């Protein structure tokens, strides 16, 4: 087709329209099949792994954004215990309300599924119950969406009683809206000659199994919420104890697999599980540590985030995530070697806003510097001038990070000199734990201390002041 140069073309309209060929085709994404290393791994995985095909609808953003999203879905699928056989992407202005990829493309997906021998299709989005039902009816294999996939990973990795309860609550809330009947398993109303010979004894209350299941799920949700409220009280008690002792708190937040647990181990020697997997640790770990000048503070490793973190999970883990909202400082860890670190930062900040932690001071830390190339690090330095570049693996930049945390922690406000008798060791201990000591000397009369302390401690020390 040729265009008359004298005819003005509205470029804005052209940009809004999707390429016709792209809309009418499914694009196969090369290089996303799970690679198995050796024979023993193959034998093991053939017994364990589901064989899956990934399907995504690309609605906005660049081609690079679509590729990054599909690569992340592959990592999620493999973390859940799947072997990825193939990946398909369709360009559309919005997902099809009935079948997600459009009526005509479902047949193409079915052909790929049957050709590869896959037993599951994973869609990169949260599907409506009708979409799930329509896809399963037409493709004839199990279909799960991104939300169900993430919930499954959380269920595998939850270890504590609180973590298991939170995951079960999120799963039940997701499942409650997606119950469906399965033919003969349900009691169906029948009567008279219309019952096909059933007649007397075939009449019943109708199709009630779904309603019964929904009621049982509702009861279980209520039990889990009561159990979590009791656990919240315990967590709140520990948090109140730290506030009462005026111990500053630092929360490590960030994208999943950005290296938060490795960083906690580096800073405190906590010995938390470290694994190159998404959502390897779900249960928050809090450790006491101290600054170079002796002030004690707590460091908490929180659950990792991901793009489009399911809303049910955010709600179920709200009490855990509140550790971030109540912290004095957020150490936001970013994987510097990731293809899209800016996207990771945006996704984490979105969740922080949801839980009310957007106003907490943030220290951006670009981790895995040993895996990132120099050009990437230079570009990140330009985009995020205040960020620190570290490597939890090699220890690079850890000392600078510790010093920056020390500098940003709340500092005591009142400067004073006191002479404490030796029978007031409790006050000396509190000064060591919560104050910044300038000088300390043991004399014949007692312990002479020059320090900067909080106002309430200054009131207690008033009788011993020697300013």
Automatic annotation (TrEMBL):
Region (Disordered), start-end ranges: 190-210
Keyword Disulfide bond annotated: no
Pfam families in UniProt: GTP-bdg_M, GTP-bdg_N, HflX_C, MMR_HSR1
Extent of Gly residues compositional bias: 193-205
Subcellular location: Cytoplasm
Metal-binding listed as a keyword: yes
Superkingdom assignment: Bacteria
Main location per the UniProt record: cytoplasm
NCBIfam families for this protein: GTP_HflX (TIGR03156)
Annotated HAMAP family: GTPase_HflX
Record's subunit section: Monomer. Associates with the 50S ribosomal subunit.
Job description of the protein: GTPase that associates with the 50S ribosomal subunit and may have a role during protein synthesis or ribosome biogenesis.
Protein family per UniProt: Belongs to the TRAFAC class OBG-HflX-like GTPase superfamily. HflX GTPase family.
Protein name: GTPase HflX
Lineage start: Bacteria, Bacillati, Actinomycetota, Actinomycetes, Propionibacteriales
Designated gene of the protein: hflX
């Amino acid at each position: 087709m040729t265009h008359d140069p004298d005819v003005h073309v509205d470029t804005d309209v052209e940009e809004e329209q999707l390429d016709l060929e792209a809309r009418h085709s499914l694009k196969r994404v090369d290089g996303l099949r799970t690679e198995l290393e050796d024979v023993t791994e193959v034998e093991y995985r053939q017994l364990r792994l589901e064989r899956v095909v990934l399907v995504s609808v690309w609605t906005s953003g660049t081609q690079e954004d679509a590729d990054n999203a599909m690569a992340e879905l592959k990592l999620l699928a493999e973390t859940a215990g799947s072997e990825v056989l193939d990946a398909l992407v369709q360009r559309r202005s919005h997902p099809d309300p009935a079948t997600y990829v459009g009526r005509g493309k479902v047949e193409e997906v079915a052909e790929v599924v049957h050709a590869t021998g896959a037993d599951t299709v994973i869609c990169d989005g949260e599907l409506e119950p009708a979409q799930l039902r329509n896809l399963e009816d037409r493709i004839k294999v199990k279909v799960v969406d991104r939300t169900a996939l993430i919930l499954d990973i959380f269920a595998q990795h939850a270890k504590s009683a609180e973590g298991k309860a939170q995951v079960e609550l999120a799963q039940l809330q997701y499942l409650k809206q997606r119950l469906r009947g399965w033919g003969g398993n349900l009691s169906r109303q029948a009567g008279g000659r219309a019952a096909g010979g059933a007649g007397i004894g075939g009449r019943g209350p109708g199709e009630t199994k779904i309603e019964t299941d929904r009621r049982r799920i509702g009861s279980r949700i209520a039990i889990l919420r009561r159990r979590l409220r009791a656990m919240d009280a315990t967590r709140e008690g520990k948090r109140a104890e730290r506030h009462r002792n005026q111990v500053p708190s630092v929360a490590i937040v960030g994208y999943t697999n950005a290296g938060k647990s490795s960083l906690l181990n580096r800073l405190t020697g906590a010995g938390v599980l470290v694994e190159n997997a998404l959502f390897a640790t779900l249960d928050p770990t809090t450790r006491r540590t101290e600054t170079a000048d002796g002030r004690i503070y707590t460091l908490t490793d929180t659950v990792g985030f991901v793009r489009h973190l399911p809303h049910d999970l955010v709600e179920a883990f709200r009490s855990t995530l509140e550790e971030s909202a109540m912290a004095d400082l957020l150490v936001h860890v970013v994987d510097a070697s990731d293809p899209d670190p800016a996207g990771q930062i945006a996704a984490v900040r979105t969740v922080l806003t949801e839980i009310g932690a957007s106003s907490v001071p943030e220290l951006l830390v670009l981790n895995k510097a040993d895996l990132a190339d120099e050009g990437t690090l230079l570009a990140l330095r330009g985009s995020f001038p205040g960020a620190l570049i570290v490597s939890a693996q090699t220890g690079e930049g850890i000392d600078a990070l510790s010093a920056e945390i020390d500098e940003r922690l709340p500092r005591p406000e009142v400067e004073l000199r006191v002479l404490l008798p030796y029978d007031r060791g409790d006050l000396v201990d509190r000064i060591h734990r919560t104050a910044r000591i300038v000088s300390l000397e043991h004399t014949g009369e007692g312990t002479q201390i020059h320090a900067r302390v909080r106002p309430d401690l200054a009131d207690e020390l008033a009788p011993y002041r020697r300013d």
